[in-house]
Amino acid sequence: SAASDVYKRQMVKHAFLIMAHNNLEILQTLVSMLDDERNDIFLHIDLKSNMLANHPMSTSKARLFVLEHRVDVRWGNLSQIRTEYALLEEALKHGSYEYYHILSGQDLPIKTQDEIHQFFHEHRGKEFVGINRGEEFEWDCRRKMMRCWFLTRYTRTRWGWFNGIIRRINKYLSLCLMPFVHRSKMDFAKGANWVSITQKCAEYVVSQKAFVLSRFNFTFCPDEFFLQTLVWNHPEFRQALYSETDEYEGCMRLIDWKRGNPYVWTSADKEELLHSNRLFARKFDLKDREIIKWVKETFS
Q1: Fewest C-beta in 10 Å: which of 1, 39, 116, 177?
Q2: SS3 for 245?
Q3: Distance between CA atoms of 44 and 56, rounded to whole angstroms?
């Protein structure tokens, strides 16, 4: 269309920051769908994974940067924040971008690149950071942010029996140490770590790295809190939030925690994906290759 031609001529660039560890076919689909001259793609592969060893990733239109320094990513642990910082810092070296989008390797766009770029052009200046201050929020803050959690890197290993033991030890230690731990209280905010933020916000988040790595060390699932808390406590960025009340509308991601952990989209969900107003969906799995193929054909 004429409008999309104008956007392409303006060449307002976006940075896509991807955290991946498995499901190579989905990652390849994601990168191919983002392969647009208006995009730069920054890819972090978990240190534990060798998924690109025999399958080097390439693009024809977008610039692709595969991070050489890789983090051993552990669920619920500070390593997830370190990974996000590695991606943000690498992207900031390569240019100024209209938006920085943090995605997982199991996400896919559910709008075309023209539609995605047009949406962000129309809402430029807004911060797409999901905020969740629901019923369990206060309890979650006390449990995850105000206690000391020492063994989070071992809460999800390949040995299921071991995980249960570690979780119990972790909980016991955190409760025993409560009288002796003095955590600085903050006006915390929580939400999904899949966000789309402006250049100014990305620069601010990176400027706060030393504080974040200190305050959020030995907490539980800090990636759910750190960026939301920074944005929530910054008057300019808080005012620019796209939505303060709907977590996933706020970040324009289609993610369903009611039907799954989160729900994995299947071929039965084509109508829902097609008619959603969101821009990206999470998550997909190779158990249903048909839906992955359909998404690529429909939104490429």
Answers
A1: 1
A2: coil
A3: 13
Nearest in space to 251 (alpha carbons), one of 127, 156, 151, 145 = 127
Greatest pairwise CA separation for the chain in angstroms: 64
pLDDT digits (tens, 9 = 90+) for 77-92: 999 999 999 999 999 9
The Cα 62–Cα 37 span in angstroms is: 5
Q: What is the pLDDT of residues 95-108, one digit of tens each?
A: 899 999 999 999 99
pLDDT of residue 224: 95
Cα-based angle 237, 243, 248 (whole degrees, multiple of 5): 115
Q: How far is CA 127 from CA 25, 120, 202, 219, in A?
A: 30, 10, 10, 25
Sheet with 280-282, edge to edge strand ranges: 107-109, 280-282, 253-254
* DSSP assignment letter at 95: -
Q: What is the pTM of this model?
A: 0.89
| Cβ atoms < 10 Å from Cβ of 290 | 10
Look at residues 130, 159, 137 and name the one whose alpha carbon lies nearest to residue 232. 130
Parallel, antiparallel or unpaired: strands 107-109 and 196-197: unpaired
Beta bridge partners of 66: 43
Position of tokens 């499901």? 23
Rounded mean pLDDT, 229-251: 97
Q: How far apart are the first and last CA of the chain?
A: 15
Taking alpha carbons only, the member of 204, 247, 193 closest to residue 84 is: 193
Q: Which residue has the tokens 């030995």?
A: 218
Query: How confident is the model over 188-208, as pLDDT tens digits?
Result: 999 999 999 999 999 999 999
